[in-house]
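Example record

One chain of 154 residues, shown exactly as stored in the release files.
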Amino acid sequence: MKNATPLLSRRGLLIGAGIAAAAIAARPRLTQAAVTEADRLIETLTGGVTPQAGKVSIKLPQIAENGNTVPFTVSVDSPMTDKDFVKAVHVVAEGNPAPGVASFNFTPAAGKAEVAMRMRLAKTQNVRAIAVMSDGSVYQAEQEVKVTIGGCGG
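Predicted structure tokens for this chain:
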């Protein structure tokens, strides 16, 4: 019987591995939302109105040991009357694959514009809370959260 030639030579295997490594390195990163993607989302949510500072308060831990469950509270200073109330609150995480975390709608019947829940954060990043008011004005607060993974700095 003749010597059988291998189906894949060592050289062919190395070339294939090199091509695969280059393809992996060149692919777009899906694990991070670009700040521009978060900005585009905010522009859509606010109808193009530029958010200003004030009225919104966001409470987050400065360091989140577990990025899978990060608590936050957003409150908006508003009288919540028929003529002056918060229409919506949007929470956006700049570094998540999908930056939109949550949106909450309010009416004057809510009496208070405040929400609290937990979110996932992919990495250390800025989290923004945007409030859309009944008069069309938009306010924003922002805070950085450092996310650690397995107790090590992230």
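Notes: Helices lie at 10-26, 35-46.
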